[in-house]
Design brief:
Layout: E1 23-28, E2 34-41, E3 47-53, E4 59-63, E5 66-68, E6 71-77, E7 84-90, E8 93-94, E9 99-100, E10 114-116, E11 153-155, E12 178-181, H1 183-187, H2 201-205, H3 207-216, E13 220-223, E14 227-229, H4 233-236, E15 248-254, H5 266-280, E16 284-289, H6 306-314, H7 339-354, E17 360-363, H8 366-369, H9 381-388, E18 396-399, E19 418-422, H10 423-433, H11 441-447, H12 451-454, E20 464-466, H13 476-479, H14 515-534, E21 538-542, H15 575-593, E22 616-619, H16 628-632, E23 637-642, E24 662-667, E25 673-676, E26 685-691, E27 704-706, E28 710-713, E29 717-724
Parallel strand pairs: 12-13, 12-21, 13-16, 16-17, 17-18, 18-19, 19-20, 20-21
Antiparallel strand pairs: 1-2, 2-6, 3-4, 3-7, 5-6, 7-11, 8-9, 10-11, 14-15, 22-23, 23-24, 24-29, 25-28, 26-27, 26-29
Length: 725
Amino acid sequence: MSGGRRPTLPAPQVWPGTPTPLGARFRVGPDGVAGTNFALWAAGAEAVQLCLFDERGRETRLRLSELTHEIWHGFVPGVMPGQRYGYRVDGRWDPWIGARWNPAKLLLDPYARAVDGEFSLPPEVYGHVRDWPEQQVADTVRDDRDSAPFVPKGVVVDDDDDWEDDRRPKTPWADSVIYELHVRGFTKLHPGIPEELRGTYAGLAHPAAIEHLVNLGVTAVELLPVHQFAHEDHLLRRGLKNYWGYNSIGYFAPHAAYAASGTTGQQVGEFKRMVRALHAAGIEVILDVVYNHTAEAGELGPALSLKGIDNRGYYRLQDDARRYADYTGCGNTLHVVQPQVLRLITDSLRYWVTEMGVDGFRFDLAAALARSMHDVDMLSPFLAVIAQDPVLRRVKLIAEPWDVGSGGYQVGAFPPLWTEWNDRYRDAIRDFWRGALPDVRDLGYRLSGSSDLYAWGGRRPYASVNFITAHDGFTLRDLVSYQGKHNEANGENNRDGTHDNRSWNCGAEGETDQEEIRSLRRRQLRNLLTTLLLSTGVPMLVAGDELGRTQRGNNNAYCQDNEISWLDWGLLEDPNWRALFDLTSRLIALRHEHPVLRRRAFFSGRAHSADGLRDLAWFTPRGTEMTEGDWYAPAATLGMYLSGRDIPGRDDRAAPILDDSFLAVVHAGDRPVSFVLPGPPWAERYEVVVDTSQEEQRETPDVSHPAGAALTVPARSVLLLRVAS
């Protein structure tokens, strides 16, 4: 077979250029000539060709002859922003030692700032002969067909934005409320967003979208992956696509399909305008990033970028170098111990902070990044580089603290600077409200900041990102509506998705016309949201949970780019779901108003004054403080007293921080319980602020209750009482 189509256009000059910065950077070159400098790290390669494409798809190949410290580079005069390009990299083909160079394959620049075109996966984009009769060795047989017609191209972008007009909110961790959303799913059906902007960065920047976020009161959006990603072959063959985006291939490029303005560089400016609009509303932007693996999968996966540039340099390989070490469950794992891979990741992170304006990152399968040669190591190069980087150590860093490899579960183990998704919180709260906790010991830890996990090394309660639901799993409404998953639409015979949902359907599977069950489900939603927003730590909501969004029981909707995943904004027109939104926004407002609900230090549990009042106390329904025996006894009710008089720290003017005191009573039992309100020194009187047994919440308390009174707590409910003066 031939090596691909020959160039049909006259080749421009290539000047030496510079090896830094990596990628394609438009600038003024020698003698004031405008052009673009191209630089590609490809350590083991024997030759590199820069491939330029015109508007008709015609290709011009230019040899990069300069090689400096394993970086191939050249300056091409006259190459302007909007130019589409890629690379062909030649070298040894010997998969048995991990060498997979194949110049027939057009490769995406790892540093491309924009990507034009969609990835499809015909046989031509594979470096090996995909349909080789002997499949057990197919990956060792080189395919010499040209992939250029079938793969997207990088785009030269002009970076001329200095962000002088932008004001970052810089919300302290303890004051943060995170809202996880999907750019497309959040905006696709919003009636207030013009149709041509729905599903895009411009749609999320629209006042109608931002109004919802502001009314809700969240301080940050955590965007599901917006790095350029590709769709997996098994999904394309079933007529589906990767909706979530956890299949990155371009770590510098905003995903082009989310752009309303164009894909030849316009997506970059559109993303920046979105960030500015959110910042102007006081909302930070956190990106969910996937640096643990790429869309090139394992040895039988396509050759899209890194695999063809330097397979051995970018990926962790097994002792049998044909095979990839897979700590991610996605076929490959980036070799973060390698300096150039570490540079790729940190350059990308700094780019999104300094040039794209984002405020932080949530790292998918972060334990895979923290592995040294094999084991997870909290002194690993990745964590060490982040800790000392003057840009990255200042932004919000969230770890998903596990991967699928041996020893990969690392909840509570990440060092200071990092916060973590706390799945121990998720499981305990789900179990409590479905009646599956044997006692309330674990509940007490989770409500008060998970000190058992995070009270070490100077970490604070906000090291715990508390969540009950996330993109992966049931929505909150489905959590109280389905006993089991219903993922048939994914085309995998319902085998995909977790079996461990810790859900309770309240007496019927799925949607029902029985009003008693529907009412109970709405109450359970109020209980779950109230528990989350009253817990110490950083709460994370999933977009639509405040509206009662359902995925019809699908707990793994990663490939459902349709109404299963998109937010149904019509729910706000239903009084029942509108009431849920109103409660959620009220609880968030309570957090913002009361520092006792968003502490910056762990509770001590000790008395700080002569009257014996402590910053935190726990009570039984008898009105007595919990004893050790009470913690181990079966129970469905717990009272938590938070003192506003004993909040550590001082305000900006060095004055003590004082607040109201609160008593929260959580009761998961299926019958009402009598709860005796604790007397002095805790309080003389109490007033009910939130009662989740009620669909509609009172704006102001209508009555106060004396200490010592036996207050009836309705079945399956939360009461939040404020100490009355």
